[in-house]
Write a structure and sequence with these properties.
With 109 residues, the protein is an alpha+beta fold. It has 3 helices and 5 strands. It has a domain of 74 residues: Beta Polymerase, domain 2. Strands 1-2-5-4-3 form a 5-stranded mixed sheet. The chain is globular and about 30 Å long.
Length: 109
C-alpha cells in the first residue's frame, strides 16, 4: 500500500475517534525514518486511547497492523508505528509541552 494512502487512513481513523487539531506532515523529502507523521490530540486519557483504537481499527480493515505501540497504558502520548506512517496522539498538555509540531519541516498538509 502506498504510504500516502496509509497516511490518509490514519487521519480518517483519527477523525472517526473525534481527534482534535489533526496535522499530517509529509517527510518523504526530509527523513528516511518515515514518509508521514500524523499528530493529533484527545481531550483526556480515555479519549486518546479511543483515538488510537479507531486508527488501529481503520487500518486493520486493510490488514495493516502497527509495528509498534507505545504509551497506550498511560494515554497521554500514544505512538502508533506503521513503518512509513507514524501517528502521535497527545493529551493537550503533553502536546504543548513537547511542541513536536515545531520540529516538523513546514506546514501540515
Amino acid at each position: 500500500m502506498q504510504s500516502k494512502v496509509q497516511a490518509d487512513l490514519v487521519v480518517a481513523g483519527a477523525r472517526d475517534g473525534k481527534a482534535n487539531q489533526i496535522a499530517l506532515y509529509d517527510l518523504r523529502e526530509k527523513s528516511s525514518l518515515a514518509d508521514y507523521v500524523m499528530i493529533c490530540e484527545g481531550r483526556s486519557q480515555p479519549h486518546c486511547r479511543g483515538i488510537a483504537e479507531k486508527i488501529q481499527e481503520k487500518l486493520k480493515l486493510t490488514k495493516i497492523r502497527p509495528l509498534g505501540i507505545e504509551g497506550e497504558m498511560e494515554g497521554t502520548w500514544i505512538l502508533l508505528d506503521y513503518g512509513d506512517v507514524i501517528a502521535h496522539i497527545f493529551h493537550p498538555d503533553i502536546r504543548t509541552y513537547y511542541k513536536l509540531d515545531e520540529l516538523q519541516p513546514g506546514p501540515p498538509l
